[in-house]
């Protein structure tokens, strides 16, 4: 009777399999590619530039989004109810996924602004250039993103239905 009220526990296989293949390919290429970016930037001191700090931040946010968001989405396609990962993971996934999305957008915006300043006002940017400034900006972006994403963690919940009602 629960199936009649809530529908099938999973989508039809003809829909799930292609979606799963695409998601797994995205997951693997995303994790490998972003991990390589992080490792290369960390291991080579010559790559410790403000631009690469922004790229590192973007790679970390993409990794977090891939690691916390995509496996959860894939599991929901295969097993829609009941949610088996628990309330802690539900809230943590909501916080990390939203914060990673926000910081990606903010990082790209900050990087674009820095490139604009480098092109249009090169002397002004040179006087305030440095890795410390880029690091501070990135830290501020992460803090803003986590603060703005925190309501998602607070208000995310799992709704269970008892049967019979």
From TrEMBL:
Compartments reported by the entry: Membrane
One annotated GO molecular function: neuropeptide receptor activity
Pfam families: 7tm_1
Keyword terms of this UniProt record: G-protein coupled receptor, Membrane, Receptor, Transducer, Transmembrane, Transmembrane helix
InterPro entries for this protein: GPCR_Rhodpsn (IPR000276), GPCR_Rhodpsn_7TM (IPR017452)
Main location: membrane
Membrane topology: Multi-pass membrane protein
Membrane-crossing segments per the record: 16-41, 53-72, 92-113, 134-155
Protein known as: G-protein coupled receptors family 1 profile domain-containing protein
Species for this entry: Heliothis virescens (Tobacco budworm moth)
């Amino acid at each position: 009777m629960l199936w009649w009220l809530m529908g099938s526990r999973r989508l039809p296989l003809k829909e799930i399999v292609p979606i799963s293949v695409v998601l797994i390919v995205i997951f693997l290429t995303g994790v490998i590619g972003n991990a390589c970016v992080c490792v290369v930037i960390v291991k080579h001191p010559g790559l410790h530039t403000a631009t690469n700090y922004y790229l590192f931040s973007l790679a970390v946010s993409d990794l977090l989004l891939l690691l916390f968001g995509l496996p959860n989405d894939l599991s929901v396609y295969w097993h829609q109810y009941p949610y088996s990962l628990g309330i802690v993971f539900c809230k943590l996934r909501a916080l990390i996924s939203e914060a990673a999305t926000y910081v990606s957008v903010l990082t790209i915006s900050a990087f674009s602004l820095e490139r604009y300043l480098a092109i249009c006002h090169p002397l002004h940017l040179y006087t305030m250039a440095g890795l410390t400034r880029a690091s501070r900006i990135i830290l501020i972006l992460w803090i803003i993103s986590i603060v703005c994403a925190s309501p998602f963690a607070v208000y995310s919940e799992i709704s269970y239905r008892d049967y019979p009602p």
